[in-house]
Amino acid sequence: METLHIVHSFEPVFDENSRVLILGSLPSVKSRENGFYYGHPQNRFWRVTAAVFGESVPLTVEEKRAMLLRNGAAIWDVVSECDIMGSSDASIRNVIPTDIAALLKKTAVRAVFTNGGTADRIYRRYQLPLTGVEAVKLPSTSPANAAWQLDRLTEAWRVIAG
Q1: How many domains is the chain partitioned into structurally?
Q2: 114-145 per-residue burial string, b: 16 or more CB within 10 A, e: under 16
Q3: Could you give the CA distance from residue 132 to residue 76 in angstroms, rounded to a whole number?
Q4: Dihedral of CA 88/89/90/93: which sign?
Q5: Is 43 a catalytic site residue?
Q6: Which domain holds residue 83?
Q7: How many CA atoms lie within 13 A of 131 on its CB side?
């Protein structure tokens, strides 16, 4: 598999009422194909967040966006550009970070959460010195995190509901 230079192509999902920010690393190949966050059918992000917010699992991009905003949640990623092989977070190199500090200034975000270890490491390295806001690392919703079953994952993610 070859290494590609990827430029993040999705805008963050947020509004002025967003109170929590959930950060992934970079959209997967499947998400990039689908044009929206957490687009791989095996990624449990939408099932977990819907359960936490007490909602039905959203299916369309508009339903997903609406569910997040209705519940005061914003999502984005920590990587703006990088070199990566496929969807492998472990292969991420030459990171150019997103501007999380600018997003925080436009919102009412009081808490930042990272979806998995890679997002957490990149946030701590590049964004924390600029934001001064500690992030809480949550277990990854990726299908690669098979050690965490859906119910256990949902329980750990309940913290995003405030």
Answers
A1: 1
A2: bbbebbbbbbeebbbeebebebeebbbbbeee
A3: 18
A4: positive
A5: yes
A6: 3-161
A7: 25
Active-site residue, selected from the candidate residues 17, 34, 43, 94: 43
Nearest residue to 25 via CA among 44, 38, 11? 38
The token pair that represents 33 in the structure block:
């194909």
pLDDT score of 88 more than 90: no
Q: Is the pLDDT of residue 139 over 90?
A: yes
Tell me, what CATH number does 156's domain have? Answer: 3.40.470.10
Q: What is the pLDDT of residues 38-79, one digit of tens each?
A: 998 899 999 999 999 999 999 999 999 999 999 999 999 999
C-beta separation of 61 from 13 below 8 A: no
105, amino acid identity:
K
